Amino acid sequence: MSSLPSLHHSTVHKLSAIINISHTFIHSIALALLIYYRLSSFLYPNHNKTVKPPFLPWLLTFSSELILSFLWILYQPYGWRPLSRTTFPENLPEDDKLPGLDVFVCTADPVKEPPLKVMNTVISAMALDYPPEKLSVYLSDDGGSPVTLHAIRGAWGFAKPWTGFCRRYGIKTRCPELYFSAEGDGDNGGYDDFQKDRENIKRKYEQFAQGLEKPGSACVEEDNHARLGQTHPPFVEIIHGNDFNNTEDGKVEMPLLAYVSREKRIDYPHHFKAGALNVLLRVSSIISNSPYILVLDCDMYMNDASSARQAMCFHLDQNITSSLAFVQFPQRFHNISNNDIYGAALKPVFVLKWPGIDGLRGPMLSGTCYYMKRKALYGSGQEEKGTEISELKRTFGMSNEFLKSLGKNVYKCKDIYNEKSMDTLIRETKLLASCLYEENTQWGQQEGFLYLSVVEDYFTGFTLHCKGWRSVFCNPSKPAFLGTATTNLSDTLVQGTRWTSGLLEVVFSRFCPLIYGPSRMPILQTICYQHLAFQPFYCLPVFLLATIPQLCLLNHIQLYPEVSSPWFILFSFVFISSLLKYLTDIVLAGGTTQMWWNEWRMWMIRSVTSYFYGTLNGICNFLGTKKANFTLTSKVANEEQFERYLKGKFDFQASAMILYPMVSLVILNLVSFTWGFASVIASGGWREMFGQIILSFHILIVSYPIIEGMILRSDNGKVPRSVTVPCLVLVMIYLSFGSIVLMYVK
């Protein structure tokens, strides 16, 4: 191993770093001057030749600017050492020397997560360009659905000819659905008989898909009963194992495939996705026990079969392997439109933030598309815990088979295929998948994926980095994975609310990155974790800046310097500098000005919806008035909504609670701009009110799709009148009450 040539290479983007650091320095000076102006204009108004504003509006506006400045400072380290990485899989050792790999795929609801899509993910994982005897695939079905079990049994039957086809012709796109769609048209083997084999395998795929669309009536009835009951016993079935002793001529060697449905009871917490992953971690440990794990969401297909080898270029590098916990790949999506009006591609994360934090000991864990070292999930490790059986059982539970696996690299999968061994194995897996197994253990506390928050990825990754582990961001030119993005406003914001609520569960705990992180990891990496954790608090300044200056405009109260003042240039610089820097980042990362504008709009919408409701949920969870919940976003495409998405039109078919904040703020700014502008023109004073007029105008321009949905559209995707009318009433109440308050604070 020591004689291996280089497996990877990293390049620091020095020019980008210099530009980012320079902008940070200049913008910081501007922010310091802005803070000086705010304080001096209130404390010494005569010195600055300004009118002293009322205390309450001044305090709220200044507070919002301070919060924005604080969050902006936390964002800066992302840009100080951006880097990219190149892998050299051809330099890896021979296949028989590669380590084992377990693939974990998670699903929960066959209605929101159609079995055909889930099986495409499973099949693509089975077809990885990796030695099949070293590969095992586990599907976690949290719904305990007979439909999903029926589907995975059928998937095994199709996977055999499909995997053989992919290996025979060197197919790179190994998800059948993607391969047979327009995205996979250019992927061919170049052989004379290729088209014949392709048509044959396509016909088999269509038969397989039809079988999933029409499962047996008994299966459907049993599935409905299981979902209504919300409880089910543990069930584990090994669909196929690596029994190579019986390999016949022409038979395709296949990886192990296992179905795992953990036990669920209403009176036992199941800890959402983290609980499912921990069950897979335990069950797989007594079957294959591979040292590395790939975690995939059920809709995240394998797009590049070589991703495992790319990840091993880092995990097998002797210079970093001892401290490397996981290799994170970006999440890419196959159903993103050119405009991406909802910002579903997550480009700010995987194009801007993750390459930056990769230069600071590595990116955060991102829920899916990562190759994890199994040992990293076992807390401080067996070596530090000692070998006392009683101590290990207090930590890991009562399973002797699991405890044995802690000292082994890999199980002999072929040994499980005699009947006696199989029965014993299944009994043990059911114990490991039971509700009671984790009682009085450290699972979810120190071992495995951690339970504190519904965003188990953020919290688990944070604790790994605090323990000294590193991570790597691998972003090859060809996407390694392709998933299904949310393509309607409702799912996008509901998903964002769930993430926000989960982040605040960490913030309001003893693991708050602001307190827990600085002494345990490098300061710049800690600041990046702090930015993501405190991101939900953008809702406060955005709400304040969308309401307070507008109310003051209608009451002729000046909050910003008059347009002829040098201080107005300062405020303009801070605002324009932020916008242009974000535009530059997006364009240099391969985006467009339209993408930048859409991302800016969605940031504002998320701030007053996802961040706002997520913050409320987080506070309620902290106070104990509400239990954490995990709402699945549907992977089933609504054709009408998807058509609007492709055309770049917002679809406002969403809960009224989601629409109320954004619609109310748009109406408020529409009123303040038109009435305030007319009033200023009629009575003078436009120099003093110009800043507030421009602010309202900017909000309206950014919010044009909402205005269009309220006034100009008549299709099903418009803003319902049942939402617009209550919002109008709410705005009138706010303006009336706010004006009365301002009369007494002037």
From TrEMBL:
UDP-alpha-D-glucose binds at K112, E113, D142. The keyword Kinase does not apply. The chain crosses the membrane at residues 12-35, 55-75, 537-557, 569-597, 657-678, 690-711, 723-745. GO terms for biological process: cell wall organization; cellulose biosynthetic process. GO terms for molecular function: cellulose synthase (UDP-forming) activity. One of its GO terms (cellular component) is membrane. The active site is at D142, D457. InterPro entries: Cellulose_synth, Nucleotide-diphossugar_trans. It is found in: Endomembrane system. PANTHER family: X-BOX TRANSCRIPTION FACTOR-RELATED (PTHR13301). This is Cellulose synthase. It comes from Heracleum sosnowskyi.
